[in-house]
Amino acid sequence: MSRPPSAAETSSLKVRRGKGRKARFSPVDYILKDLWRNRSRTIMSMSSVAALSFLFVLFSSMDAGFADFFSGDTGVPSDEQKELYKVKGVMENWVYLITALSLILMALVVSNTGIITVVERRFELATLRALGISMPRVIFMVSASLAMILYGGVLMGTVLGLLCIPLLDRVSLTLFTQGIGFPLSFDPTLIWRSFLVGTLAGAIGASLPLIFIARSSPLEVLRDG
Amino acid sequence: MDNGTSFISVRSVVKEYRVGDSTVRALDGMDMEIDEGDMVALMGPSGAGKTTLLNMIGGLDSPDRGSVIVKGMEISSLNEGQRALFRKNNVGFIFQFFNLIPSLTALENVLVPVMFDRDPPFDRAVELLERVGLSGRMDHVPGRLSGGERQRVAIARALINDPMIVLADEPTGNIDSVTAREIVSLFRELNDEGKTMIMATHDRLVSARARSVIKMRDGHVVRGKAKSRERIVHLADRKASGGIRRKVEG
Fold this sequence. Notes:
The complex is a heterodimer.
Chain A: H1 7-18, H2 27-37, H3 39-70, H4 79-120, H5 122-130, H6 135-177, H7 189-215, H8 218-224
Chain B: E1 8-19, E2 22-34, E3 39-43, H1 50-57, E4 65-70, E5 73-74, H2 80-90, E6 91-94, H3 106-111, H4 122-131, H5 147-159, E7 165-169, H6 177-192, E8 196-200, H7 204-209, E9 212-217, E10 220-223, H8 228-240
Parallel strand pairs in B: 3-8, 3-9, 6-7, 7-8
Antiparallel strand pairs in B: 1-2, 1-4, 4-5, 9-10
Helix pairs in contact in B: 4-5
């Protein structure tokens, strides 16, 4: 077994690699394969996060649009403008509400996905630990898997939201002149704010499943399995 | 047997588990010594403590009382991280239900224990799969392999780190008798190369090919080392011919 491979064996290995076999296997490959195996769940979780990010970006851009709209005002506001200021205040509250809701719902999505992953794969995770992979590394693998879902969703939602801003702005501005729409504006800080909300949600949501892993005994899982 | 010079030494080990409201004593003052390069079959009825003992030796479990010493290292006193490292470097586990990762191919499954290594031994994984007769099945996921083939993948995985000790829990419990014979022959081959093999089994085929048989009941040894004379001669022969390779790192 420990003998060096013969020339024929070495050449046959080369041939096999030439046929497309990868000469390495890393934890990232493992995580990607697992996400692919559970692709229905992956896509569903990612879409939920994307939808929440989209909403966050949209409402934040409305807020930015209002800020732009009022930025030129200096004199004493007219009655109509006072009404608009009131609307602006309401809009800001909506933005805070949507941000908080996005954060909570994203955290729930991450937590839910994480718990399902940990429960469904408990036997697999226990086997990894039995094979000598340390608990921090198992936690890293599950965290990385959740992070891929979360940031994948945030990226999709943010890009979609930013792409929609010019389109919605055109519609909204027309309606705004009739007193029923809202202006939208692209704010570059939306990108990092969106990822910040995602990161906070991920940190909150992932904590429960990760604590679950840290507290579980691989031995008990293998014995019960 | 001897005084602290054994490769594996289990001393006065007690292990209890809570099952509902009651406490089950899985190991009851267990004492046992295993030499390097031995091939031991642990036999006994269900609940005798065979799997618990395997888990203790493999560093998966720790005793409530007593000590487990492997090559001079008291593994019962190691913390979780140290035990994980001990398992990775020194122990190969073979499970009854194979415990393969369903989303990975046979080759990737073999590489799982070393996937965090800077340079995973890809060529060795290929060699091991060829050796267990799966050269044409490397890219197959476990779902497309037979029970015997899955167990071969599990054996290759157990050997990827070139461990000192191979622990097998009912290795033939889930495969047909023909495949079981082949698996046991493979175990014997590995043992001939110097691996210390410890198998928990009900299968007489396995115990017949083992060099030592230890019978357990109610958490302690009732009869052991039935084939010790043959084993000692065997070890002496192999040591004389340089057949035993020793792993130095801890």
